[in-house]
Glycerol kinase (Anaerostipes butyraticus), 498 residues
Amino acid sequence: MKETYMMALDAGTTSSRCILFDHKGDICSMAQQEFTQHFPKPGWVEHDPVEIWETQKKVMIQAMDQLKIGADQVAGIGITNQRETAVLWEKETGKPVCNAVVWQCRRTAQMCDELKEKGYEEMIRKKTGLPIDPYFSGTKIRWMLDHTDGAAKKAEEGKLLFGTVETWLIWNLTGGRVHVTDYTNASRTMLYNINDLCWDKDILDLLEIPESILPDVVSCSEIYGYTDEDLLGGKVAIAGAAGDQQAALFGQTCFQAGEVKNTYGTGCFMLMNTGGMPVNSKNGLITTIACGREGKIDYALEGSIFVAGAAIQWLRDELGFFEKASESEAMAVSVPDTNGCYVVPAFTGLGAPYWDSYARGSILGLTRGVSKNHIVRATLESLAYQTLDVLKAMEEDSGIRLDSLKVDGGACANNFLMQFQADIIGEPVHRPECVETTATGAAYLAGLAVGYWKDKEEIKENWKLNRVFDPNMDDEVRKKKIFGWKKAVNRSLSWDKE
Ligand SMILES: Nc1ncnc2c1ncn2[C@@H]1O[C@H](COP(=O)(O)OP(=O)(O)O)[C@@H](O)[C@H]1O
Ligand SMILES: O=P(O)(O)OC[C@H](O)CO
C-alpha cells in the first residue's frame, strides 16, 4: 500500500510554505517561497493576493515532487495563515480589487481613534474580545471599500467577497466554489461576536460592512471542499484551517486550559488556552478563539507582539548587517552585553500590552562605543523583553504562574535569544524538535477530520523536546536590564502622534 501524507499550507507574513507530514508528525518534505512586501507609506504594509496564491500553488507542487507522490497520496490539506490580513475580490472573476491590507498596517489608526472617541471601545471589546486597533480586519475592510473605485457600490450589490488569507486560499483551491473562514480567523476580524458565535450586526452597521461579503464561519477541523482536479492531478480534501498562532497552540498540543506557547515569527504571539470560557483581560491582552471543533469552542488569552523576527529582517535588509538571519546569533554572542543600548522595534506601533498605534521604533543609549554587534544583540533582546511584558500580563489575567515556556517559530532557532529569554523571565524555556508547529497544528486539525490521526492523545505522543534553556542570570542584573527596557519603551510611545 502506498504511504500517505498530510499536507499543511502555511501562508505566513513573509512566505508561502507547504509541508508534508507523516503519521509521527515528522516533516517529510518542505517547500517555501518568499513573496513581496509592499510598504507604500510609512507604517503601511500590503501584499499582492495573487502572488500569495501563485507562490502557494508552486510550493504545493514542489513539496509533492520532492516525495514523488501524486494527489492520491495526500490524505488531506490543512491551512494556516497570517491572520487579520484583509483580501477583497470580485465574486464573478475572482480578481482582487486591490492589494491585501496586512495585519501590521497602521493606515486605519485615525479611523480607530474616531471609533474610540465615540465611545465604542467597551461595546466592541465585550462582543469581540478585542480592543479597537488597526491590527484587526474590520477597519481595513472599511478602508478598502472607501478607497477603491466602485468597491463600496459593488459590495452593496453583493458582487464582492471578503476573506482573510485562508478564505482566499480555500476559494482558489476549490476553483471559487467555497467561501468559508474558520472560528479562529473570524475572531480576528473585530466583526465576529465570540460569545454568540455570529457576525455581529451592530458592528457591521457601525462600519457599514454588508454581511453578504463575509464568508460562512466553519469549524477548524472538517471537510470544507475538495481541490480542483487540475491543481494537483486529483481531488484532495481541504479539511482544516486555523490562524497561525492558534494552529501553533494546537501543534504544541496545548489542549488543556492553562497551557501556553510563544511563537517567534515575523511577530511574536503568546497564547494561553483558557478552555471553554473566554477570559477578559485587565492587562492589555486580547480574548480570542483558540479552536472550534466537534461542536466545542476553546478560548485563549493572547499577547500580540507586532515586530519580532521582522526586526531581524530589518537588520538584514535595511541595515545590511548580515546576509542570513542565523548570523545574528554569532554577532550577539561576540559581545558580553549591549553596552547600554536598547532597541524598541515599534515599527508599526506597539501591540500588547501597550496598544499604541503611534509608537515608533527607537535605538536608545547610544554612545561612541556601541557597535553593530551591540545593536544586533539589543534587537534580539527586544524580542525577549516584549515577551516578558506579555507574560507578566498573562500571569496577572489568568492567575496562573508559568513555571516554563514552550516556544516555536523561525527565530527560536536562535540559541542566544532562547537563553536570554530564559534569563529574563527567570524560568526555563522548552524548545521542541519541530519548531514548525504552526504547520503541524494545521496538519493535525485536517488529519483529525479525515481520520489520519485518531484523537488528540495520539497527537500528543508526537511532541518531542529538543532542548531546555535554564535561566542563569543574577536577579539584580535582570532587574536592572528590565528597568532599562521600560525606560526605552516609554520614550517610544506616542512618537508619531501630531
Ligand atoms: N536564527 C535566527 N535568529 C533570529 N531570527 C531568525 C532566525 N531565523 C529566522 N529568524 C526570523 O524568523 C522569522 C521567520 O520565522 P517564521 O516562523 O518563518 O515567520 P513567519 O511565519 O511570520 O513568516 C523571520 O522574521 C526571520 O528574521
Ligand atoms: O506571520 P506570523 O507568523 O508572525 O503571524 C502573523 C499573525 O498571525 C498576525 O496576527
